[in-house]
Write a structure and sequence with these properties.
This protein is mainly β. The chain is built from 1 helix and 25 strands. Strands 17, 18, 19, 20 and 21 form a 5-stranded antiparallel sheet that branches.
Length: 400
């Protein structure tokens, strides 16, 4: 594909387009993308090719953008005031399953299990959002407490994965990081037909404070593979400040057999298999495969001792299964090399939020941009690859 880049869904750069999920469309070269405007103002779905067409209204791509406002039923019943779509499942012929989260208008009320800040949702129907089939889901933590934050990240063949916690909205040491998410963070599977939550069972020796589940892939015959992360966050006391503990996080894969409700083949991963120094956080943002044996995973990492120039590093990770069906712990890592097409400036903060085949979506930020208004891009591999790393086309910037 030649220069397959686009990022903007709104008229004349009015707002920031956040791209968060991607799946294959009905035909080769057609994709279904999901995201939001300004993080939560509107949910977004794009159907079409990834190309550099610029529409008369300033939006990109020769396909169709669909805008999803907060459903009226969510406004009335749950006081919802924002929505974001994380993951799509293309059902064909103009039908989709979508998962994500919505925020609530809390007013002066404190966040609690009875008054959650963020709640998950799923939708099944026409791709334009017109079907009245939105359902809300509030998770329950591993200690049987109603979550204050619930996120549904990915869906495939009737099962969705996500995570929930009992976070407050108090910042840690004046940062926008929300305190106490480490307390009850629980990764789970949700059956959208029954509405039943099934917490993911991790090996006891890896029972860390936090667990997330960001991607699920259906391998066939009732068997799935789940991708996400686990780790520790700084302790937060009554003074709402960190005790200085260094955060550490690892990516993971785990298999789930829906036939007998069992988990197996758990495997952790670190940035470049730990060969480039200590990484503080490694996380798998999604998962893609064609045969259930080889998986490509969008990843992000912070690795200050790796020699990388980026604060956050987006990568494509390839993991193979061994003959015994377990995951090979030595993965192939290919870091994204995103460059601003206007001035050739390299991104210092790059994420890889989701991928499908050879296409990754995420965001990049360049010096001089407000990090809160980061540029979101869609990136595809070029026909020729550099040695041990993908040769990526340049990414167009999106400044709001």
């Amino acid at each position: 594909m030649s220069n397959p880049l686009f990022a903007n869904a709104v008229k004349n750069n009015e707002g920031v387009t956040f791209l968060q999920g991607i799946k294959a469309g009905d035909k080769e070269g057609i994709f279904v993308l999901t995201g939001s405007i300004n993080a939560q103002d509107y949910g977004l779905v794009y159907e079409g090719p990834i190309d550099n067409t610029i529409q008369p209204d300033g939006s990109n791509g020769s396909g169709t953008w669909y805008f999803y406002p907060v459903p009226p039923s969510f406004k009335k019943e749950y006081l919802a005031n924002g929505i974001s779509i994380y993951g799509p499942e293309n059902l064909g012929n103009g039908s989709v399953n979508l998962v994500g989260a919505y925020t609530r208008q809390l007013g002066e009320n404190s966040v609690s299990g009875e008054n959650p800040d963020t709640v998950g949702f799923y939708y099944s129907g026409n791709i334009d959002g017109s079907t009245d089939n939105y359902k809300s889901f509030q998770g329950v933590t591993k200690t049987d407490k109603k979550a204050t934050f619930t996120f549904l990240h990915s869906i495939f063949n009737g099962l969705t994965v996500g995570n929930c916690d009992i976070a407050t909205t108090t910042p840690i040491s004046g940062t926008p990081i929300q305190a106490a998410r480490r307390l009850e963070s629980t990764a789970f599977i949700l059956n959208i037909e029954t509405g039943k939550q099934r917490n993911i069972e991790f090996p006891s020796e890896t029972n860390e404070d936090t667990h997330t589940a960001y991607g699920i892939w259906y391998n066939g015959n009732g068997k799935y593979t789940i991708a996400g992360g686990l780790g520790k966050l700084p302790e937060v006391g009554e003074n709402k400040k960190s005790d200085g503990t260094i955060s550490r996080g690892w990516a993971y894969l785990i298999d789930y057999d829906n036939n007998n409700d069992s988990f197996s083949n758990y495997q952790e991963f670190s940035y470049h298999n730990g060969q480039k120094g200590i990484d503080f956080i490694t996380h798998f943002e999604g998962i893609w495969s064609t045969d259930g044996k080889t998986y490509k995973l969008p990843s992000l990492a912070t690795a200050p001792k790796s020699g990388a120039k980026e604060l956050i590093i987006g990568s494509v990770v390839t993991v193979e299964r061994n003959e015994d069906s377990k995951f090979n712990p030595i993965a192939k890592w290919e870091d994204l090399d995103v460059v601003n097409s206007e001035d050739q400036q390299a991104s210092y903060l790059t994420t890889n939020n989701s991928l499908c085949d050879h296409v990754s979506i995420g965001f990049a930020n360049y010096k001089g941009n407000d990090p809160a208004q980061a540029s979101f891009v869609a990136i595809a591999d070029s026909a020729t690859n550099k040695k041990d790393a993908p040769s990526l086309v340049q990414a167009s910037s999106h400044n709001s």
